[in-house]
Design a protein that fits this description.
Length: about 110
């Protein structure tokens, strides 16, 4: 399922220090994702020029993609399923209570 997580998806952190936190995926770098408001670290920056003060900034650090899962608007985990439709399209659906809800089209028909 983790390979279906893309930029701008809403995800839920399921492991680690930030377990239970939801956020939006800002970027994906290989097997790691950068989630807004999750795994925030402080970075100390020296002043580069004379007269400018040094500063401490907070920035998000990436977490492994296996530690997040897709979630719905309420912040609950989503079960997803991959479906290849009759017209050749590949789509990703969320399954809840036996009903399928389209999340996105993965591959358009040729």
């Amino acid at each position: 399922m983790s390979k279906w997580i893309k930029k701008d998806d809403k995800v839920l952190v399921i492991a680690g220090n930030n377990k239970g936190t939801t956020g939006v995926v800002l970027a994906r770098r290989g097997e790691k994702v950068l989630v807004k408001g999750v795994n925030v670290r402080k970075k100390h920056l020296k002043s580069r020029e004379q007269g400018k003060p040094s500063q401490i900034i907070e920035m998000e650090k990436p977490i492994h993609i296996s530690n997040v899962c897709l979630c719905d608007e309420d912040g609950k985990k989503m079960k997803v399923k991959f479906v290849q439709e009759n017209n050749g399209q590949k789509a990703l659906y969320a399954v809840s209570n036996g009903q399928n809800k389209l999340i996105r089209i993965i591959k358009k028909a040729d």
